[in-house]
Amino acid sequence: MKKEIKFRQEYDEMMIGEIVLPEHIFLPITGSGDIGDLKVGDRINKYDEIFPGLISPVTGEIKEHLKMFIDGSESDVLKIAPVEDEGDNESDEGSDIPDESNEAILGKLKKSGYYLENIIESECDIVVSAVDTDPLCSVSQQILRENRKDLNKNFDLFKRIFNREKINFAVPEHLFDMVWKLQAQGVNVVKVIPDYPNGIPEILISSAFEKNSLKSPLYLKLEEFLNICNAAVTGRPNFKKVITLSDVNGMKNINVLKGTPLDHILKDSDIRSAGKVITGGPLRGSANFDLNTPVTIETDSVHVQYKKDIVRAVNDQCINCGRCNGHCPVNLSVNLITRYSEFSQFEKCRDMGVENCIECGLCSFYCPAGRSLVQLIRLAKSEINNLEGEIEQ
Amino acid sequence: MKLIVSSPPHWHSGSSEKIINLDFIIGLMPALIHSLYFFGMHAARVIALCVAVAILSEVVLKKIFKNNIGPFNGSAVYLGILFSMLLPPTSPYWLVIFGVFLSVFIGREIFGGIGSNPFSPVLVGMAILELSWPSHLNVNLSSVNYNLGFDFHSPLTALKSAGADFTSKFSLFELSIGNQVGGIGSVAIIFLFIGGIYLLARKVIRWEIPLFFALGVIGMAAIFRAIDPHSFALPWFHLLTGNVMIGMFFLSTDYSSSPFSNPGKIIFGLGCGVFTVLFRVLSVHEDGVIYAILIMNLFTPMLDKLVSGPKILKTGYFGRGIK
Predict the structure, then answer these.
(1) Any idea what the Cα angle at residue B172 is, between residues B166 and B178, rounded to 5°?
(2) ipTM of the complex
(3) How far apart are CA A141 and CA A174, in angstroms?
(4) The pLDDT value given to residue B319
């Protein structure tokens, strides 16, 4: 049975479920990979600062220091075996806006791993988005529904910390009624039709805020925005991440600890015979080869495909029907670019503006010849990068 | 657990070349049934021969050119049916075989197969036949032995030889329901129109080319009519005769020989319409649709440069999660 594919990202309200603590978590170390005095076998406590910007989310023993492939690049990872700690009091003792000085709040943010002074100094416009970036993902919508009562407080706090007159807020059309009142307090609320690819940051900022002419916009997901606000109040980071787990039969939202391996999430939902595990949406996401890959702040959705549903690449000859061009959100001549790329004429690809491609995947989706157009575009992009590197040398 | 990895996207719309060609064939079905009803076994003979030769020559030529034959996608069947729609029912078998073979060979395979042809393959074959054996394709001669209960003068011959005043004896209603002399299926105006609407509804073709083709014909014919109503026919007469309707929906919308940019499509359609009327009025040919579309095919690479270029998106700090 073929399930109807929908690009409409309008989903009903659903509960955010919880799952048990995993056996191991994988904590990516950003930056140099230097973890100071810590070594394998050490015990670390929750809220310990491993190095500035990285806070341990659990109490537990460091089992391994290894390299892993996360979000398209290799990074150093700490494998930690967490222990259940009963003494964890995550009560919302201070949900009111504190009457503290900005320095005190920034100190709290630093304690939570957020180093954001440069945002205060820079002139950039802040865009908070509650529009989900990919189909089969309802994280932002769900968080907006859950937190709609506190949004006004949080926006006030955010404006105070970062010294902004106005903050831009993109919401999906069907949830506009919940937040339109925010406009009275200096939040520029913009309605966005929740159709893929309108939620992709580049497109959201270019089309939804066309009239506002934003200056070097800073894009924040609603979840990140709320995490920052929460850290400013409590001085503690939020180690949880809401993800949408979906397969042919449906979708659900779960709240997991950052660093939880995909394996654990699948086991918890009783998915045993996955053929493809995709993080980052079915149109732009990457298929994982390693189920130990941890959930990061980037992981909004985990989509599971079973063997029988997997799309096979056909790669017939292009018939020039022009559907790719018709669906391209950045108006590229995809049919020409990909054929140039196929026959290694990368400079012509560059002349046609291939670097403007945001890899939304719509061209490949609609291609009747089943060509892997995104792959050809990526090839062209990387070859152009290589060429330019050679010229510079 | 063994996992499968691939480059995104991990979804596909499910459309395929096979479905597209099937849609084109379904679009031609009303006209095909009309032709079978009118000409009976004569039409069936031509259609069957066309399809058979098209499939056979494609397979043989792909083998000779060492081109991947690939799965059956129905493009040869569509080419065969479309070619037969333009032929008179009395076409001799060698003419059909020769025409279809040339369509597949010179029209398509020599350039590398489907998607690479600069001209509409059907029109290449038809143009060669029309220039080489005009007498065999003369619709008036070929239909002398039929009696179908309406005037057996080709309306376009009448216009060419007797002037516009003589065309008043053709009622527009009769013309539009297909009571006129012409190719097997190309005269089934209303049936081709229904097929064309089906193609538009299925989004197999886009509306720009058919609409502006029609506007080009009407506009150019109206200009001539305004100059001299006695020698030039009404715009509607031009629209409802000859190959205009099949050209609008089926011949000019061939994917690889028509432009893909939207402004290009508009100019392409308009050009086809304008050249059609110019050929009818100023040349020795009665019907100029074939040549008009072939001429506009020449402009396709130029028209494709009319794309507005990539939309430059705003840059900023995106995605990567602030730390």
Answers:
(1) 105
(2) 0.88
(3) 10
(4) 47
pLDDT tens per residue, range B18-38: 999 999 999 999 999 999 988
In DSSP notation, B102-138 reads HHHHTTTGGGTSTT--SS-HHHHHHHHHHHH-TTTT-
Distance between CA A299 and CA A15 in Å, rounded? 19
Q: What is the rounded CA–CA span in Å between residue A21 and residue A145?
A: 26
HEC assignment per residue over B284-321: CCCCCHHHHHHHHHHHHHHHHHHCCCCCCCCCCECCCC
Q: For residue B321, what pLDDT is reported?
A: 45
- Residue B271 near residue B293, CB atoms below 8 Å: no
Say whether residue B284 is in contact with chain A using an 8 A CB cutoff. no
Q: Whole-angstrom Cα distance, residue B156 to residue A344?
A: 51
Residues of chain A with pLDDT under 50: 1-2
Using a pLDDT cut of 70, give the percent of chain B over it. Answer: 94
CA A278 to chain CA centroid, nearest Å = 13
Query: Cα(A183)–Cα(A179) distance, rounded to whole angstroms?
Result: 8
CB A41 within 8 A of CB A62: yes
Secondary structure letter of residue A13 according to DSSP: -
Q: Does B297 touch chain A (CB under 8 A)?
A: no
Question: What's phi and psi for A192, nearest 5 deg?
Answer: -125, 135
Burial of A328 (0-12, 13-18, 19+ CB in 10 A): buried
Identify all chain B residues contacting A30, using CB atoms and an 8 Å cutoff: 323
Count of CB atoms situated within 10 Å of the CB of A207: 16
Per the structure block, which two tokens stand in for A95?
């949900």
Tell me, yes or no, if A261 comes closer than 8 A to chain B by beta carbon.
Answer: no
**Amino acid letter at B308?**
S
Q: Is the dihedral of CA A341, A346, A347, A352 positive or negative?
A: positive
CA distance A224 to chain B (A): 8
Whether the Cβ atoms of residue A167 and residue A187 lie closer than 8 Å to each other: yes
A116 within 8 A of A162, measured Cβ to Cβ: yes
pLDDT in tens, A250-271: 889 999 998 899 999 999 888 8
pLDDT digits (tens, 9 = 90+) for B169-220: 788 888 888 888 888 888 889 999 999 999 999 999 999 999 999 999 999 9
Are A224 and B4 a contacting pair at CB < 8 A? no
Helical packing angle, B17-39 and B41-64, nearest 10° = 150
Strand partners, A192: A172
Which helix (H) or strand (E) element contains residue A351?
helix A346-351
Question: For A157-166, how does the pLDDT look when each residue is reduced to its tens digit (9 = 90+)?
Answer: 888 888 888 8
Residues of A in contact with B260 (CB under 8 A): 320, 322, 325, 333, 335
Phi then psi dihedrals of residue B81, to 5 deg: -65, -45
Please report the number of interchain residue pairs, chain A to chain B, with beta-carbon separation below 8 angstroms.
Answer: 184
